[in-house]
Amino acid sequence: MKKTAFALVLVLVTLVFTACGSLPGEQRVLRENSAAEYVTLADGYFSQEKYAKASEYYEKALQLTESTDTVTYKLACSYAYEGEYEKAAPLFSELLDKDPQNRTIKESLAYVTVMSGDVRGGGQLYEELAADFPEDGKLLKNYVLTLIQSKNFDAAEEKIKQYKSLFGTDSNSQLLDRKLQEALKPAETEDTAE
C-alpha cells in the first residue's frame, strides 16, 4: 500500500512539473532574448548599410518585446536610410512626443517629413529648430530651402538676409541665393506670359 501511494505521489508530482512546462517568467525571458538576438542581427545589417534587412529584424524585435525607444529609433533610421520616409515619420514623431527637447529626433523628423512630401510641415519643424539653435547655420539653411520649395519667396529672401548677417557670405548663402533665383525664374516667366 505504501509503495502504491508513493508511486501515485511520484506520478502526480511528475505530471505537475511536466504540465507546467516552464518556470514563471521563462517565456518572457525567452522573448526578450530572442528580441536581443534580432537587434544584434539588425545592427549588423545596419552597419553594412543593408537597411531593408535591418528594418526587418528591428520589426521582429519590436514584436517580441515591449517597444523600446532605442529599437524604435533604430528602426526609424533604417526606414529613413532606405527611403521609406512615410514609415519613418510616425516613429520619429512618437519618439519626439516622449522627448520633445531631443534635437536629433526633431531634425530627423523634419527631414523625413520634407522628404515624404510635406514641405510645410517639415519647414515648421526646421523653423523651430533654427529658432532654438541659432548658432547652427545648417538648420536655417534647411528652413530657407523649405520656404523656397513651398514658394514662400518673400520669407525665404528675409531668412537669406538673416543667414548672411549671422554667418556671412559662404557657400551655403550662395546656394540659397541661387536656389531662390532659380525658383523665381519660372514664377517671373509665368507672370510675363499672362
Question: Would you write up a description of this structure?
Answer:
By secondary structure, this protein is an all-alpha fold. It has 2 domains: 88 residues, Serine Threonine Protein Phosphatase 5, Tetratricopeptide repeat (Alpha Horseshoe), CATH 1.25.40; 61 residues, no CATH class. The protein is built from 10 helices and no strands. The chain is elongated, with a radius of gyration of 28 Å. The chain starts with a helix and ends with a helix. About 7% of the residues have low confidence.
Q: How is the CATH topology of the largest domain named?
A: Serine Threonine Protein Phosphatase 5, Tetratricopeptide repeat
Shape: elongated
Strand content: under 5%
Tell me the radius of gyration: 28 Å
- As a percent range, the share of helical residues equals over 70%
Helix count equals 10
- Low-confidence blocks of residues: 5-13, 15-19
The number of E-state strands comes to 0
Distance between the amino and carboxyl termini: 110 Å
Task: Report a brief summary of the structure.
This protein is mainly alpha-helical.
Distinctive features:
mainly alpha; 10 helices; 194 residues; 2 domains; 82% helix; 0% strand; Serine Threonine Protein Phosphatase 5, Tetratricopeptide repeat
Question: Layout of helices and strands, plus pairs?
Answer:
Layout (H helix, E strand, L loop, with lengths): L1 H19 L5 H22 L3 H14 L4 H13 L3 H14 L4 H13 L3 H14 L4 H13 L3 H15 L3 H23 L1
Helix pairs in contact: 2-3, 3-4, 4-5, 5-6, 6-7, 7-8, 8-9, 8-10, 9-10
